[in-house]
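[Discussion] Sanity-checking designs against the backbone

I'm trying to build intuition for which residues belong where. Below is a structure token string of 423 positions. I'd appreciate it if someone posts a full sequence so I can compare it with mine line by line.
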């Protein structure tokens, strides 16, 4: 039985904020019935489970088919089971789990193989944010103190703003064209003696666009600059597009481009892995060596960490490895094929709805829509009032056609969209 977008679901996303505004989306209700107390004695596990389920009842679920704007999805059940079986493993102390450490090494090289460079190094990290932070940290340490600027598209994910603030570096944001790809002439002109790194995106957060990455790679080579590719979302889509029957002339994004030093690719987005699972992949050990930390005191003995966080989920490593082994190229191609089919199906139906336009021709399974008779903010609010969670970007709404969705879900959504666009 498909889960429905019930009253609880819509309440979860559009009632009033009472407190902890900083962690909740605008409009979430937090009932302040009782001040939480640390319990003096424990309750039975059944009671705790019931209480928990009751507390979390208002949350949206991927199974409802109402989450249309997330870049995450319901994890694959096999991956989730493996994850739950390996919970005690801390890959931050690899001496305790040498087999798991080897598994991580091989997982990174396997993903490197997908990205046309098996001889790579890296780590399974908490997500795209940590991977992007690591890339800029590495670039900064490699560049030395006199270079503080990073040239990147204006569409770059906000993790780069976090990185800039944390590391006191400057971002030079370059506008994008009508197809949402960075304007390469302006990008070239922005490179100067202060530039420490270039960033390109393979699957932008807003519209799934792919920047002109071979030109950016040439630029990096010419000026001997660090180049990082953010393929957090696109990394598990672009390699499978052609075999899925959706060839794309912008699919060159990986280590085949000689200027690329590192890539972010997130298994917890289109890789079907449980959260947390991102990956940072470096072309070589020498590059990764700019952001390593020696740790001497761990129970497992000396280690050299390549991540920002110390204690790290070994369960993530086990789940990512297992999913790649169980799905393979064929499995991922099937997933991408289904998501791309839904993307084009939805785009074609939306073209028949008066008052709604699509923003660009989708490259991957991300679709931007905008209303013609009201603001995107107003449409987002109306859809939220009907229980649907889409992402709101300046000027448009984003729909991500993820594995948890189906044509049945999308048909229901289309009725609601048509009604709300007409009002
Ligand atoms: C292109 C891109 N990079 C990085 C991120 C950050 O990933 P995470 O939320 O896993 O930290 C996102 C998230 O949507 C993204 O779209």
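Best answer:
Here's mine. Compare freely.
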């Amino acid at each position: 039985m498909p889960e429905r977008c019930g009253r609880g679901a819509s309440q979860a996303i559009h009632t009033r904020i009472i407190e902890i505004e900083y962690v909740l989306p605008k409009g979430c209700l937090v009932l302040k019935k009782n001040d939480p107390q640390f319990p003096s004695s424990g309750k039975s596990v059944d009671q705790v489970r019931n209480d928990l389920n009751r507390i979390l009842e208002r949350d949206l679920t991927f199974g409802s088919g109402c989450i249309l704007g997330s870049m995450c999805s319901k994890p694959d059940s096999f991956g989730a089971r493996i994850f739950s079986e390996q919970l005690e493993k801390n890959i931050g102390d690899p001496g305790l789990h040498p087999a798991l450490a080897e598994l991580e090494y091989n997982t990174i090289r396997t993903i490197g193989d997908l990205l046309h460079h098996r001889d790579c190094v890296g780590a399974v990290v908490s997500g795209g944010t940590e991977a992007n932070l690591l890339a800029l940290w590495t670039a900064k340490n490699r560049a030395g103190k006199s270079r503080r600027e990073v040239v990147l598209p204006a569409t770059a994910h906000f993790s780069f703003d976090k990185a800039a603030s944390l590391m006191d570096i400057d971002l030079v944001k370059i506008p994008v064209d009508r197809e949402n790809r960075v304007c390469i002439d302006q990008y070239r002109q922005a490179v100067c003696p202060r530039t420490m790194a270039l960033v390109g995106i393979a699957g932008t957060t807003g519209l799934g666009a792919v920047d002109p990455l071979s030109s950016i790679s040439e630029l990096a080579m010419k000026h001997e600059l660090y180049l990082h590719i953010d393929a957090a979302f696109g990394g598990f889509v672009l390699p499978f597009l052609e075999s899925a029957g959706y060839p794309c002339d912008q699919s060159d994004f990986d280590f085949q481009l000689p200027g690329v030093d590192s890539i972010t690719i997130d298994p917890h987005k289109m890789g079907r892995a449980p959260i947390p699972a991102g990956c940072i992949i470096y072309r070589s050990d020498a590059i990764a060596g700019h952001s390593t930390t020696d740790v001497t005191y761990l129970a497992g003995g000396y280690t050299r960490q390549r991540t920002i966080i110390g204690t790290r989920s070994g369960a993530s490593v086990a789940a990512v490895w297992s999913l790649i082994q169980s799905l393979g190229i064929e499995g991922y191609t099937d997933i991408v094929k289904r998501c791309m089919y839904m993307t084009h199906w939805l785009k074609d139906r939306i073209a028949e709805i008066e008052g709604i336009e699509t923003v660009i021709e989708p490259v991957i399974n991300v679709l931007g829509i905008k209303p013609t008779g009201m603001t995107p903010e107003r449409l987002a609010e109306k859809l939220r009032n009907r229980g649907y969670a889409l992402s709101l970007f300046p000027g448009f709404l984003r729909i991500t056609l993820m594995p948890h969705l189906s044509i049945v879900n999308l048909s229901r959504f289309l009725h609601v969209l048509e009604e709300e666009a007409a009002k």
